[in-house]
Structure formats: C-alpha cells, structure tokens
Specification:
With about 350 residues, the protein is an alpha/beta fold. The strands form three sheets. Strands 7, 8, 9, 10, 11, 12 and 13 form a seven-stranded mixed β-sheet that branches. A four-stranded mixed β-sheet has the order 2-1-5-6. A two-stranded parallel ribbon has the order 3-4. Strand 5 and strand 6 form a beta hairpin. Helix 1 crosses helix 10, helix 10 runs antiparallel to helix 11 and helix 11 packs across helix 12. It starts with a strand and ends with a helix.
C-alpha cells in the first residue's frame, strides 16, 4: 500500500488557519504494519517511495517502529500527501488528498517477485485504498493476492472505502474480484454497500441476527472464510460507541463484542488498528471471541492517540481489556442495586 506524508493543523482550529502544520507519516497498510510490529510479529511493508530525502525519512520511521523495509521500492516520482483536520467522526473531520502521480501510483506487477517475497509468510494484508489508486496498483495487488492464495498464505482485505479517491468511479467492478476467496474481509455497512454492491441498511449491524445476515451474504457471494464487520456510533463531539462481529463461514459461528464507549482524540487509524489486532490475535492463536475483543480494545486505544500509528503492545491491550471488564462489572452491580 501507499505510505503518505501527513500534514495536520497546527494551533488553528481549522486547516491553514495556523502558520504551522505538523508533519508525520501514515497510510492504511503502513498503520497496520506498525501496529502488527508492536504486537511482536515480524512483518515486511511493501510499497514504493520517492528516491529522495522524504522517502529516506519515511523508511527511517518504519524501521524505528520495527517494520521491515527490505521490500520497499524506490522511484523518481513524488511522495503522496494528505492533509488532516481531525475530528471524532467523518462528519466533523476533513481529509484532503494530494497523491496523484506519486511513486506508489506508478507501481506495476513486474516490479515485485511475489513468489520470493511471500515464501514462508504467515499472512498477507491489503486494503481497498490501493484499488482506488490506478491500474498499476490494482494489477499489483491482484498479482500479490493470487500468489498468496496459490502458496496457501492466508489473505485479508480491509475494504476502507474513501469516496474522495473514487470520485465518479464505481468501485464494485474493481474491488469485488479482489475480495473473492480471501480468508478475511473487514468492512462496515457503508463500505460493503459502496465497494461490494450489496444493499445493507445503516443499522443492519445493530443486532447479532442482522450482522449474521450481512456476513453470510458476503461469505456466500465472494467465498470468504471469515467476515469481520465493525459498527461506529457517534455519541458526542468526542465520544464514539464501537462494536464488532466476526463470522466464520465453515462453522457458521458469529461472535460479537461488547459495545464500548470511548473518547476520541484522533479517529484516523482506528480501523487499521482493529485490522492489525484481529490479524495478530489469530496469528497468536487466540479464540475468535478473544481475537475480536482484542481487536476492538486495540482500536479503542488508538482513538485516544494522535497521529496515524498505534504503538500499543499486546500487554497494554490486555491490561486495557481487564480494566474495561472491571468497569463494566461495577456498572452492572450498580444498575442491579438500583
């Protein structure tokens, strides 16, 4: 996936109302790689960066986070940018992309030997954002996914619908073939409608029965082994209610998390933290129930952290889960006493 230079507002309440902006790096797949690395899993991030000082800085950041950079390609093109005005939800945050003609947009399948790269891998992850970036990235992702499946490497894709990247294009003909036969697809009602072409009501995940129906439709149509669905409800300017389900097609089992209400500092990267933790939980041998809870907790922690990256460790997430369980137990006893 594409790594971007992130520029966010300085002291002003809105973009460009301050003479200063904060610079950092991010991007959906990079965020997942960083989070997975902090969970103690060796990972390699595959991207293409400009052959200049900005590209060098991006590589240095990845290395500092414990992410492998031996498969990073370089090219003469520019670094993609995005400008962020953070908010608790899409309705009160703004993201402006400036990533046309970037080094990653110029990637082609012939640049990467996927057979060699995926040899011995335990997992391959990508997102629907790559599918929006042009024919080269789409073809490269398709080649990677096909190679992973042929080598028995589990694959996952987070739909990650970004309307600003698709504009007037229909994502379904591009994304649907990439989702077919993946081991794990991650999405929410909005992304499922836009990128898979399935009619899903906004409140479809409000009940386990509704979530099961949506997950089964995705699994049946695309042959996915697991379907993870997330639901975010905005409770206030800086408060979200966050829940998730995981459906296993082979057993028909659906596991649901307890909904958590969490404070929000920066919502960007919350979904990436969920994906990373769900992958890590399964690679670490957690049960489906524990993996979903672990993923939701990691995501909740990320919402409290500014910037793209989630640097929490496995122990920190488990400690947070224990604290949340204790809080819920106390709340339940108080309700009962009333």
């Amino acid at each position: 996936g594409e790594m971007l230079l992130r520029l966010s507002r300085g002291d002003g309440p809105r973009l460009f109302e301050s003479e200063q902006m904060r610079a950092g790096f991010g991007g959906a797949e990079a965020n997942v790689a960083v989070s997975v690395a902090h969970f103690g899993i060796e990972c390699e991030y595959v991207t293409r960066l400009p052959d200049n000082l900005i590209g060098e800085a991006a590589i240095a950041v990845l290395r500092a986070e414990g992410v492998g950079t031996g498969r990073v390609l370089r090219g003469p093109e520019r670094m993609g940018l995005y400008f962020v005005e953070p908010g608790a939800d899409v309705g009160n945050s703004r993201v402006v992309y400036d990533r046309a003609a970037s080094a990653f947009a110029a990637i082609t399948p012939t640049m990467i030997d996927w057979r060699a790269l995926l040899a011995g891998a335990d997992w391959f992850h990508a997102t629907g954002i790559t599918a929006a970036l042009g024919p080269g990235p789409v073809a490269t992702l398709a080649a990677a996914s096909a190679t992973a499946r042929s080598h028995g490497v589990p694959t996952s894709i987070d739909l990650n619908y970004r309307p600003a990247l698709w504009r007037d294009r229909d994502p379904v003909p591009v994304v649907a073939p990439l989702v077919r036969d993946v081991d794990l697809v991650i999405g929410n009602p909005h992304s499922v409608r836009a990128m898979l072409g399935l009619e899903v009501a906004e409140d479809a995940l409000a009940t386990p029965a509704g979530a099961r129906e949506v997950a089964m439709r995705i699994a049946d149509r695309f042959g996915c082994r697991q379907v993870a669905l997330t639901r975010r409800e905005v409770c206030g300017p800086r408060e979200n209610r966050w829940s998730a389900t995981l459906f296993d097609a082979a057993s028909g089992e659906l596991v649901s998390s307890q909904p958590w209400t969490v404070g929000v500092v920066d919502r960007i990267g919350g979904g990436d933290a969920f994906a990373a933790a769900l992958i890590a939980g399964q690679l670490h041998g957690r049960s489906r129930v524990d993996a979903v809870e672990f993923a939701l907790a990691a995501s909740a922690l990320k919402l409290r952290i500014p910037g793209d990256f989630n640097r929490v460790t496995t122990d920190e997430v488990d400690l947070f889960i224990g604290g949340m369980r204790a809080t819920q137990a106390i709340s339940g006893r108080m309700q009962a006493s009333r």
